[in-house]
Amino acid sequence: MAHAGTLAIRGLNKQYEVKGEALPVLQDINLTIEPCEFVSIVGSSGCGKSTLLRLVIGLEGDYQGEILLNGQRIVGTSLNRGIVFQEHRLFPWLTVEKNVALGLLNSSLTEGQQRATVREHIALVGLQGFEAAYPHQLSGGMSQRVAIARALVNRPDILLLDEPFGALDAMTRAHLQQELHRIWQQEGITMILVTHDVEEAVYLGDRVVVMEPRPGRIRRTVPVGLPHPRERTSHAFTAIKDSVLREFAGHPAADLAEPPLKRGEQLAPAAQWQFAV
């Protein structure tokens, strides 16, 4: 079982320089995420959701304030933070087993321990029997399962999810939301989900953090005090979802579809992004 981490963000401010002028992106972000908690983050385009994930992952270090994982300031990327993107980013020339095993490239485990850990995590995401399959032989949902297994194989303290199901059809998405919840409970890991899908945020999260843009800041945190499994059509579920949606009154619906972390950017060499986060 993974070790659940505590994430503390205190007085976080982030800005970029554009044409010689400072452009504030995040302003006075204060958020504590407890061990084993599942927190969903939603917000309209430009609210800084993706920038916040970049900072937590450690891809950027130029900011004001503190980002602490288990009391230690985050400096650079680390194996104690896993990440799942919208694009699965599997290597097409490697099998499922070898794609998952890549997450252990810098591991201190013995070869036998690595094989056992890979098998365990393939089973965790329900892909027994597909160990020798290649990515082109998998559906989109199965590929994302492999990506989740690869992100968890190092047993990180915290798992970050950037629109992990955004490219999937509605039925596959709903099924993988259920699977992600099962994995979260089974692994006992801290998870942070960035999504533009408010229903997904409420379905999975213990809390929904609503951000507003320009500069990005936390508008409201909505507790989701509903037991699992959650019934999407229940009055209580709908009431919470509507409460979150009301925070976006006045924002065009398209604004909720912010591109996920690093979408459209050219992929860095594997050694720079695959094993360090």
UniProtKB/TrEMBL annotation:
<feature type="domain" description="ABC transporter">
    <location>
        <begin position="7"/>
        <end position="238"/>
    </location>
</feature>
<dbReference type="InterPro" id="IPR003593">
    <property type="entry name" value="AAA+_ATPase"/>
</dbReference>
<dbReference type="GO" id="GO:0005524">
    <property type="term" value="F:ATP binding"/>
</dbReference>
<keyword id="KW-0067">ATP-binding</keyword>
<dbReference type="Pfam" id="PF00005">
    <property type="entry name" value="ABC_tran"/>
</dbReference>
<keyword id="KW-0378">Hydrolase</keyword>
<protein>
    <submittedName>
        <fullName>Sulfonate transport system ATP-binding protein</fullName>
        <ecNumber>3.6.3.-</ecNumber>
    </submittedName>
</protein>
<dbReference type="GO" id="GO:0016887">
    <property type="term" value="F:ATP hydrolysis activity"/>
</dbReference>
<keyword id="KW-1003">Cell membrane</keyword>
<keyword id="KW-0547">Nucleotide-binding</keyword>
<dbReference type="InterPro" id="IPR027417">
    <property type="entry name" value="P-loop_NTPase"/>
</dbReference>
<dbReference type="InterPro" id="IPR017871">
    <property type="entry name" value="ABC_transporter-like_CS"/>
</dbReference>
<keyword id="KW-0472">Membrane</keyword>
<dbReference type="InterPro" id="IPR003439">
    <property type="entry name" value="ABC_transporter-like_ATP-bd"/>
</dbReference>
<keyword id="KW-0813">Transport</keyword>
<dbReference type="InterPro" id="IPR050166">
    <property type="entry name" value="ABC_transporter_ATP-bind"/>
</dbReference>
<comment type="similarity">
    <text>Belongs to the ABC transporter superfamily.</text>
</comment>
